[in-house]
UniProtKB/TrEMBL annotation:
It comes from Kribbella caucasensis. InterPro entries: 6-blade_b-propeller_TolB-like (IPR011042), WD40 (IPR011659). It holds the Pfam family PD40. This is WD40 repeat protein.
Length: 270
């Protein structure tokens, strides 16, 4: 595993949650409620804002459509939208059900979305799967908050972090379950608070974010680690990248399409 390479830095926009374009040429990040593109071969050109018509301010949950031309976006109004990567009009794809919808996964065939459904922020979030414009199905992941659901590249599994294995509030651990539902399998047992498992496109590697013991949620501005593992042996950590960050570092899948690199964001104190 190589050492990290600094691609881009800015003090103008607090950027979060990189996605790698399917053609390998760009990263997509959010910042200041908008979506931005960064050309990997020409990072000195800076960020290019992508303009959408009628889209509320974004949060940091956005995932590319497998068609390589569109992106799904979670907005601050609690809904999920779909738009072209070059901007323009958007369509709302989440239902009007009085709930908040925090997108994290798009199935490999592009037919379904996996998101966290919340109707009361005092109650743990639930894992829901939906066909765009359809009705959601809530999957049973056990007690405790669940977050960060995304499919394996073969579509057979949904990976996520969950508090189902402990009575300690906030002690998230990594897990997976078969699609479309079934027994929840724990992947790692440790004292760190582990969030956002992301598999590489070739299904060989995974990254996740480890917060300090006792962390509740996935806050910003902490000493955290991006960890790399083999999907065949999650407890054995192949590489650790310690940094100052947390919220925004790797909220969504950031692997390159050839599975040789991944992007993450650090927030060093100036």
């Amino acid at each position: 595993m190589a050492e990290p390479e600094l691609l881009f830095e800015t003090t103008d926009v607090l950027i979060e949650a990189p996605n790698w374009s399917l053609d390998g040429s760009s990263l997509f990040v959010n910042g200041n409620g908008a979506l931005w593109r960064l050309d990997i071969d020409s990072p000195r050109r800076g960020l290019t804002r992508i303009h959408f018509d009628g889209l509320p301010d974004l949060n940091n949950d956005h995932v590319l459509d497998p068609d390589g031309q569109h992106i799904y976006l979670s907005a601050m109004d609690g809904h999920i939208y779909r738009g072209r990567l070059d901007g323009g009009t958007v369509e709302r794809v989440s239902p009007t059900d009085g709930k908040w919808h925090f997108l994290h996964g798009v199935s490999p065939d592009g037919e379904r979305l996996a998101y966290v459904e919340i109707d009361d922020f005092a109650v743990p979030g639930r894992l829901a799967v939906i066909e765009p414009y359809g009705s959601p199905t809530v999957l049973d992941t056990g007690p405790g908050h669940v977050d960060g659901p995304e499919w394996s590249p073969d579509g057979n599994w949904i990976y996520f972090n969950t508090e189902a294995f402990t009575d300690d509030p906030g002690h998230a651990q990594l897990a997976r379950m078969p699609d479309p539902g079934g027994p929840v399998q724990r992947l790692v047992a440790g004292n760190t608070v582990d969030w956002f498992p992301h598999l590489s496109p070739d299904s060989r590697w995974a990254t996740y974010l480890a917060f300090p013991p006792g962390t509740v949620g996935h806050p910003a501005d902490l000493d955290v680690e991006v960890r790399v593992v083999s999907v065949d042996n999650w407890p054995s950590i192949l590489q650790r990248y310690p940094l100052f960050g947390g919220q925004g570092t790797i909220n969504v899948n950031s692997w390159s399409p050839d599975s040789t690199r991944f992007a993450f964001i650090a927030y060093p104190i100036a």
